[in-house]
Amino acid sequence: MTSWFDGSPETYDRARPSYPEPLWDALFAALPSSPRILEIGPGTGKATTALLSRGASVVGYEPGERLAAFLRARFGGESLEVRNAPFEAADDPPGSFDAVVAATSFHWVEHGARTAKAPAMLRPGGLLAVVGTHQVADSADRGYFAASHGIYRRYFPETPAEPETTPGRDLLPAELAELAANPLLVQARLLRFDWDQRYDTAAYLDLVRSYSNTAQLAPADRERFLAELATFIDTGFDGSVIRPLVMTLSYGVRRA
Question: Contact 243/134 with Cβ under 8 angstroms?
Fold first, then answer.
């Protein structure tokens, strides 16, 4: 899992969206009461908050040193154990958990750990649950993302000449097929939740600043890029950006 997010936990926590409550309600409807959950890459605790509030005890594998410290300070005294290590290093006995949950973090995990180690951590009937955050094509964005493409091309040479095709609200996340193909799992299921986010200019710049590609820019280039985006949003989009999002919950059940 990347370490770029470890640079400024406060910015990451302020900028990144949370998750819809009905998503967690659906997950917990399939779990026993007071479940024991392993969370992969909890970050600043966006998902952890929902897990703990519903009575779970959580073991979180967080590779970022600053993020792990942020989590301990945020949830001190609650039913959370933070391990400052990547999930690939987890050494819990097989069958230790009622669920393994990865919220916008599954794609950072090495493939073998996703397909073998994560299911092995589950008791029979336990859930491997993957939450995804997906920006989708929708007129709600008022054309902002297509219009801003040229700015990105100036600062990120790898950006394609034309905007990439964005899926619609009926998307099928890649992890669903991976869960369905896993011989250790059965009953792969997908739920979708609309979760559009509106940002004023400052909040949107915080979000962009939290992305790993932005963090990799040279400091002077990064500030020029953000300043150009700010002017573009203020002058062309009335000082706000609407980001059409669909949150997905994909899960499979550990085979008995």
Answer: no
With a CB cutoff of 8 Å and minimum separation 6, the contacts of 188 are 176, 179, 180, 250, 251, 252
| Nearest-angstrom CA–CA distance, 70 and 67 | 5
57-61/80-83 β-pairing: parallel
Task: Please tell me what DSSP assigns to residue 115.
Answer: I
Predicted model pTM: 0.92
239's CB contacts (< 8 A; 6+ apart) are: 200, 201, 233
CA dihedral 184, 91, 73, 222 (to 10 degrees): -70
Q: What is the mean pLDDT of the chain?
A: 94
**Tokens 């491997």 correspond to what residue?**
128
Question: Average pLDDT of 54-59?
Answer: 98
C-alpha 25 chain-centroid distance: 18
Maximum CA extent, the chain: 58
Task: Please tell me what DSSP assigns to residue 149.
Answer: H
Q: How far apart are CA 251 and CA 106, in angstroms?
A: 12
Contact yes or no for 20/77 (Cβ under 8 A)? no
Per-residue CA distances from 28 to 32, 144, 166, 175, 176 (Å)? 7, 36, 30, 20, 19
For the chain, which domains are there?
A: 4-137+167-196+244-254 (3.40.50.150)
pLDDT surpassing 90 at residue 182: yes
Query: What's the CA gap between 252 and 186, in Å, rounded?
Result: 6
Task: Please tell me whether residue 256 adopts helix, strand or coil conformation.
Answer: coil
pLDDT band, very low/low/confident/very high, at 9 (cuts 50, 70, 90): confident
